[in-house]
Amino acid sequence: MDQAVCCYRHPDRETGVRCTRCERPICPECMVSASVGFQCPECISESHQSSPRPRTVAGGTMVANPRLITTILIGINIAVFLAVQAQGSKLVADLALVGAWPPPPFHATIGVAEGQYYRLLTAIFLHQQLIHIGFNMLSLWWIGPGLEVALGRARYLTLYLLSGLGGSALSFLVAGAGSESLGASGAIFGLLGATFVLMRRLNYDLRPIVAIIVLNLLFTFAQSQTIDWRAHVGGLVTGTVIAYGMVHAPRERRALVQWGTCAAMGLVIIGAVAAGVMRING
C-alpha cells in the first residue's frame, strides 16, 4: 500500500499536488496559481526576487514613493530658509555666491576666489524672501516627481545638483563684482530643460513646456536688475545637456554614457569656476 503524501508545510494534510518547480507536495492552502499548474510559496517568492525590476526610459527603477528625493530637497531648502530667518543677513553673507567680474585690478575679499568653493553649492539652497522660496519649492514639487520617476533617484539628484552648480558657475564667471546670487532657481531651470528633453523623447506635446520655459526666461530678463539671469541660463543649459545624455543613452552602454555626460558637465563647471578665479587673481 502506497504511503500517504503530505504537504511539506503542513505534515498533517495529505495531498496529491506537487509544486511544478520544486516538486514538493503542497496542500490547497499552500497552492499558488502559476502560468502552468501550482507552485509553493517559496518558489513564488524566489521568482519575484530573481525577476528584473521594471525600468524607465532612462533606466530608473520603479519605486513606491516617487517624491522621496524631491521632498528631501524641499526640506533642506526650508531648513536653510528658517536658519536665515533666525540668523539674519550674516548667514546670507556667509553662504551666498559672490560675482567674479570685472577682471583685475579688482580683487575679491570674500567668496569663491578666496577658496570658499562651498558657496557654489550653498547658494542653491539659500533664500531670503518667503515669496522666493515659495515659488521655487512649488515649482520643484510640481516638476520634480515626474523626473524622479523617469530618471531614477540617483540620476535625478545628480541632475538637480549639477544644474544648480552650472547656474552658480556661470553666475560666478560673469556676474558683477560683489553681487550676491542665491536661490534654487538655477536648479529649477535645469529641471525644466530636462522635462523638455524627456517629453521630446516620449513624443509628448512640447508646447506646454516650451511656453513655460519661454515665459520664465522673459520674466527673468525683464527683471534682470533683481533676478540673476546667469544662474537661470546656466542651470537650463546644464540640465538640458545632462538630460539628453540620460534619456538618449543606448541601453547597452547606458551607465557609461549617462555618467560620462554628468562627468563632462562637471568638468565644464570646474573650468568655468577656474576661469573666474584666474580672472580675479590675475
Provide a descriptive summary of the structure in words:
It is a single chain. This protein is mainly α and 282 residues long. The chain folds into two domains: 1-51, no CATH class; 68-281, Rhomboid-like fold, CATH 1.20.1540. It has ten helices and four strands, in the order ββαααβαααβαααα. It has helices at 41-50, 68-87, 89-95, 119-122, 130-151, 153-174, 185-201, 207-222, 229-247, 254-281, and strands at residues 32-33, 38-39, 97-98, 180-181. The chain has a two-stranded antiparallel ribbon. The longest helix has 28 residues, at 254-281. It is elongated. InterPro entries: Peptidase_S54_rhomboid_dom (IPR022764), Rhomboid-like_sf (IPR035952), Rhomboid_protease_S54 (IPR050925).
Helix content: 55-70%
The CATH homologous superfamily of the largest domain:
Rhomboid-like
Instruction: Report the major sheet.
Output: 2 strands, antiparallel
Order of helices and strands: EEHHHEHHHEHHHH
Radius of gyration: 27 Å
CATH class of the largest domain: Mainly Alpha
List how many beta strands DSSP finds: 4
InterPro entries: Peptidase_S54_rhomboid_dom, Rhomboid-like_sf, Rhomboid_protease_S54
Main location: membrane
Keywords: Hydrolase, Membrane, Protease, Transmembrane, Transmembrane helix
Pfam family, one: Rhomboid
